[in-house]
Amino acid sequence: MQAPDKAPKTPKKRSLPLQVQDASVFCIQEMILHHPACVADYAEVVASKFFEVSGRAGPDRRLTVGLARALDHLLASIEPLRALEILLPQVSQNFDLLCAALRRLRPEQILEHLNVIVAPIVAAAETDSAETRKAAIFSLVDLYLIVGEDVMSYFRQELSPSQLKLVTLYAERQQCDSKGATVEAD
């Protein structure tokens, strides 16, 4: 018996039509909303598939928005610390979701895990992409607004002087804006 000349062909991954992808994401999103326990044990796997599809979603805004919404629902349905574990490796593409996950944590929880949380954000703040750097700085501002002055000593160690100046400047601006909105509401 002769060995085959060629290795067996592996089937190529074909993209599903966008309508099918949209419907699939919507279906999973609805399942997460109405039956979160069904995906709780598999949140990391579901999130990784969302990240994978999002990475190749291309210019289809509807699919991208649907994926972000579904991922947000997934992360909101699990423990906030677990949500952070899922998000932090993907932080440079998901700052909005990271900030939402941080807001679900108590300040003490953030302080307890500060080194794990801040390291990927600081790394993102040092990339070549201006958009990514800006989003990273605003994430650090959110951290400051959630935790308060307790986080500044850590920021002084980890951030460059210019990054620290941006964080304090934007934090002060947001605090002034929120105080102004409160005064206007009275």
> Structural class, judged by helices and strands?
mainly alpha
Q: Helix content range of the residues, please?
A: over 70%
What's the number of extended β-strand segments?
0
Number of helices: 11
Radius of gyration: 21 Å
Mean pLDDT: 84
Model regions low in confidence, pLDDT < 50 over at least 5 residues? none
Overall geometric form: globular
Largest sheet: none
Which band does the percent of strand residues land in? under 5%
Kindly report how far apart the N and C termini lie: 89 Å
- What is the string of SSEs from the N terminus onward? HHHHHHHHHHH
Task: Summarize the structure in words.
By secondary structure, the chain is mainly alpha-helical. The chain has a domain at 107-186. The chain is 73% helix and 0% strand. The chain contains eleven helices and no strands. It has helices at 18-34, 37-40, 43-55, 61-76, 80-87, 95-103, 107-112, 114-125, 130-147, 152-158, 161-185. α3 (43-55) runs antiparallel to α4 (61-76) and α9 crosses α11 (161-185). It is globular. 26% of the residues are buried.
Topology:
Blueprint: H1 18-34, H2 37-40, H3 43-55, H4 61-76, H5 80-87, H6 95-103, H7 107-112, H8 114-125, H9 130-147, H10 152-158, H11 161-185
Helix pairs in contact: 1-4, 3-4, 5-6, 6-9, 8-9, 9-11
Notable characteristics:
11 helices; 186 residues; 0% strand; mainly alpha; globular
Question: What is the gist of this entry?
Answer:
InterPro entries: ARM-like, ARM-type_fold. Helix content is 73%, strand content 0%.
